[in-house]
TrEMBL record:
SUPFAM superfamilies: Dimeric alpha+beta barrel. InterPro entries: Dimeric_a/b-barrel (IPR011008), DUF1428 (IPR009874). This is DUF1428 domain-containing protein. Pfam families: DUF1428 (PF07237). It comes from Novilysobacter ciconiae.
Amino acid sequence: MAYIDGFVIAVPTGNKQAFIQHAEQFDPLFMEYGALRCVECWGDDVPPGKQTDFKRAVQATDEEEVVFSWIEWPDKATRDAAMEKMMKDERMDPQANPMPFDGKRMIYGGFEPVVSFGSDGAAPAGA
């Protein structure tokens, strides 16, 4: 079963192109290590909530936008092996390749899908 790593970050609006370039540089590394798909989504309709919301979750300022991203892996074992290899990969060194956002405010986690509809052909119509 697939495994998903999800991320929510606040990126300075002026760094949008730098963020895209950063993703274009690093997402292929995830693919090299076995990821099936990497998706980077720039906030477009991120409304404020009454109790909590994406912006408050990452302490985004008025000069920042929320980015929602995920990496799809074939399974957790592939993801775990990839993470171990990437920690040793000099291309992932944040000193040599700094992130265009504050990584300390990033929210991330690994998730096991429990329901899936869509392009992979799972769950036929009417199911």
